Amino acid sequence: MTTITVVLGDITSERTDAIVTAANESLMGGRGVDGAIHRAAGPQLARAGAALGPCAPGDAMATPAFDLWPPVAHVIHTVGPIWEGGDHGEPELLASCYRRCLEVADQLGASSIAFPAIATGIYGYPAEQAARIAVHTLRSTPTAVQAVRLIAFDEASYDLMAGELAAQ
């Protein structure tokens, strides 16, 4: 059975087999959590992403984690939907991000994974709705992953994710 926990912290310092980055389609790095992960992993991550991408919204792809410390084996890149009001398939695409990341983690043999709040930054997805989708999808997706950590970068994100986890 998968255990889901919410943590306030920095995803780049997580001790999991894989961490997820909320990537752009190029997989070559961006801003926000993606930029932080790319800076921590080193320039090899962007080169590996460029060789692998592009990645469509709702999909996920893995690369080595390179220089991340503490050591992480894999970075799973997923491209969230850009919020356009909710009537353009955004909820389905966001749920697909979480499902696909778990599928990729299973293919890699990862037993633990850390997720940021996907698409809630520059892509503008409403944080409350995103938290609900994240928790529901992670709880309802069959996986061999034993530990899922939802990493909140601030108190407001933590409160939303922890509230959803307690409510579902």
Question: What does the model show?
Answer:
Residues 1-168 form the Macro domain. InterPro entries: Macro_dom, Macro_dom-like. It comes from Streptacidiphilus alkalitolerans. This is Macro domain-containing protein. There is one protein chain. The chain is of the alpha/beta class and 168 residues long. The chain is built from 5 helices and 6 strands. Strands 1-6-5-2-4-3 form a 6-stranded mixed beta sheet, sandwiched between helices. Helix 4 (127-140) links the parallel strand 5 and strand 6. The model has no long low-confidence stretch (mean pLDDT 97).
SSE topology:
Elements: E1 3-8, E2 18-22, H1 32-41, H2 43-52, E3 60-64, E4 74-78, H3 90-108, E5 112-115, H4 127-140, E6 147-152, H5 155-167
Parallel strand pairs: 1-6, 2-4, 2-5, 5-6
Antiparallel strand pairs: 3-4
Helix pairs in contact: 3-4, 4-5
The CATH topology comes to Leucine Aminopeptidase, subunit E, domain 1
Q: Can you count the beta strands?
A: 6
CATH top level?
A: Alpha Beta
CATH homologous superfamily placement: Leucine Aminopeptidase, subunit E, domain 1
Q: Give the domain tally.
A: 1
Task: Please describe the structure with a list of short key phrases separated by commas or semicolons.
5 helices, alpha/beta, Macro_dom-like, Leucine Aminopeptidase, subunit E, domain 1, 18% strand, 168 residues, Macro_dom, Macro domain-containing protein
Quick description:
The chain has 168 residues and is an alpha/beta fold. Helices cover 39% and strands 18% of the residues.
